[in-house]
Amino acid sequence: MERYPFVHDPSKPFIQQVGDWVADVFYELLPAAGFEVRDEQIYMAFQLERAFMEKKAIFAEAGVGTGKTLVYLLYAICYARYTRKPAIIACADESLIEQLVKPEGDVAKLAQHLSLAIDARLGKSPDQYLCLVKLDEARFKDEQGGAQWEDLYENLPEFVNNPQPMQKFYAYGDRKDYPHLNDEQWRKINWDTFQDCFTCDRRHRCGQTLSREYYRHSSDLVICSHDYYMEHVWTFEGRKREGQLPLLPDHCAVVFDEGHLLESAAMKALGYKMRHVVFEELITRLLQGEIRESLAVLIDEAIDQSEIMFHLLEQHSEAIPGSDRKQIHLNEQLLKAVHRFRSILTAIEEDLVFESQLYSLDDYQLRIVEEHIEMMQKALSLFENSEALICWVTDSEDGLTLSIMPKAVKEVLQERVFSTNMPIVFSSATLSVDGSFQYVTDSLGLENYLSFSVNSPYDYPNQMQAYAPNLVHGGSFSEKMGIAGQLLERTDGRALILFRTHEELQQFKQQITSDPRCANMTFYYEGDQEISYLISAFQSNEASVLCAISLWEGLDVPGPSLSNVIIWSLPFPPNDPVFMAKRNASLDPFVEVDLPHMLLRLRQGIGRLIRSRGDHGIIAILCEELQQRDAVREAVLSVIPEGVTLQEAL
Predict the structure, then answer these.
(1) Which of 123, 263, 340, 426 lies at a CB distance of 3.0 to 4.6 Å from 443, suitable for a disulfide?
(2) What is the average pLDDT across 269-277?
(3) What are phi and psi of 78, to 5 degrees?
(4) How far, in Å, CA of 98 to CA of 537, rounded?
(5) DSSP 8-state class, residue 296
């Protein structure tokens, strides 16, 4: 294929030539294919030209319908070919990745209408892949789903369980390939953070490994999630030390689609998870070699101290309503146990230096143990300064899981992302609050950046009706159910219902079956099947209803299939340890933390309704706080599209 989609003149600045070609695309080539000329889109294109020219970060806030994805794709593809390195497109989650590359998605549109061969490959997170080890465990231990797991095993590619050298192989095991499994079933067989891939004798036949080999060779785009990109950043140096390739290939630019969500992804990637059973299994590997008695004693002490620490964590943790996370109440006894455990780990590390010189331990196993202990030391060291620490525990079949993350991710982002001297695009319809980007830039620690905002081109007053029904019974669940039934009947389904919590969704799922108005409607529930499959089914089955907790951003379903968006509760942040820490660090938690988070997400939720100039529909916000708190009502009114009136009567 031609390297560039235009005639390149080496004597002229390359990005300037890209800008000229992009202008031709939006003024001539795409309109000739039936696309409309959008001034907002062209304005964004000229703004991105500057960011790519100066290799700077830019906050590109463009309203729904501006076609912002097409703009950043064109620049990213051209820049990738110029630098001979792929560009990274990092989406907020895996469902948005699938929407970008679906047959009717934006990558396909550009390829079709510009006759442009685009090499776009998916770099999905590890938990989106089948784990062969966990599949075997499910086959032999899960009696309830035994036949299902056996069938799945029998349908694996032939090379997976063939002991002969692989002559022909391909990536497999993607979550998308198993749409019939619900999320709970999938968690029984997918990769998780406690899988020891380094010593797995099946890693070279693993679908996750083979997928990495595939996407590394992309010449244009690697499309991944925010989580996976930050995992790449966080593990980059460690993987190099271990002689492994980084998760993602060397790249020329990064686009963070729905960029307002990057901070939470960064915090998640920079976090640590620990379980006693995993530590015990790992540390006892050292006992398989010829080691000195002093090290063996330290290993026994470490196992005992780990048990003590996790026992205290369980004693001093408290369930958080509406969350599977338990808040840890730090106290002197617990902190002493953590410090004691760290001192034993330090002694083991010192002894391992001596043991490594005796060559009595397997070098590969020794390196794995050392890396794991180093990780635990980094995690537990945060307890030395509890002000910099966010931690919680969750229950699991294998005992308590301790999660630890640093409060601030600014330093890591500044050092490993923003100082890389490459174009970085934050793209979203919601990056600012009250016209200011400060809420997002402060959370990321970014000071030197470009920014712009353009509004949506849609005629919202004539395309959208918005309602906030007066909840006379205080917004009880039964009252909301009654209103929801009325709204669903009005549009004959064709609705997206957005819930704030999993508990709300499950309660709705249980109660809607008794509403005769909805008896003939098909309902799809997030968690029941793979999410991109649910979205496709919802779009195809016009009179259906999609119920979700994670689709506030990115869902793009133009046409009558989505004519009604019901917002069950205002999307205030959860009362979990992460946001509790943010609130504790704030002078006015409601104004500085809760309200900006809610408004950004609410704007996104509202944006799911009108996706084309031909769309019409209704938005309904079922929230008692609109009547109880004037500040909340004023804030919500500020994000309703201009010209749209928030009505009480349906």
Answers:
(1) 263
(2) 90
(3) -65, -40
(4) 14
(5) H
- 265 and 417 in contact (C-beta within 8 Å)? no
Q: Specify the pairing of strand 87-91 against strand 254-257.
A: parallel
Of residues 171, 85, 71, 162, the one with CA closest to residue 128: 171
Nearest to 390 by CA among 577, 583, 231: 577
Q: For tokens 């390297």, name the residue.
A: 3
Evaluated on CA atoms 465, 466, 472, 473, the torsion sign reads positive
Q: What is the chain's Cα-based Rg?
A: 26
Which structural domains are found in the chain, ordered by start?
A: 14-119+411-454 (no CATH), 128-217 (no CATH), 272-405 (1.20.1440), 460-647 (3.40.50.300)
Query: pLDDT (tens digit, 9 = 90+) per residue, 66-104?
Result: 999 999 999 999 999 999 999 999 998 888 888 888 888
Chain length of the chain: 650
C-alpha neighbours within 13 Å on the C-beta side of residue 274: 24
Q: Quick one: DSSP state of residue 247?
A: S
> What are the beta bridge partners of residue 621?
567
Report which DSSP code applies to 28.
I
**DSSP track, 558-591:** -STT--EEEE-S--PPPSSHHHHHHHHT-SSHII
Report whether 411 contacts 404 (CB < 8 A): no
219 DSSP 8-state letter: S
Name which of 606, 611, 616, 612 is nearest 642 in CA terms: 606
pLDDT digit string, tens, across residues 597-606: 999 999 999 9
Q: Contact at 8 Å (CB) between 42 and 436?
A: no
Burial zone of 92 (CB within 10 Å; 0-12 exposed, 13-18 middle, 19+ buried)? buried
Three-state secondary-structure class, residue 521: coil
Neighbours of 436 (CB within 10 A): 12
Surface-to-core class of residue 231, CB atoms within 10 Å of its CB (0-12 exposed, 13-18 middle, 19+ buried): buried
Question: Is residue 248 within 8 Å of 417, Cβ to Cβ?
Answer: no
Structure-block tokens of residue 60: 């590109």
Q: What is the dihedral of CA 297, 299, 303, 304, to 10 degrees?
A: 20
C-alpha–C-alpha distance, residues 101 and 76, integer Å: 15
Q: Is 122 exposed, middle or buried (0-12, 13-18, 19+ CB in 10 A)?
A: buried
Average pLDDT of 256-273? 89
Place of tokens 């992804």: 265
pLDDT digits (tens, 9 = 90+) for 556-614: 899 999 999 999 999 999 888 888 888 888 899 999 999 999 999 999 999 999 998 89
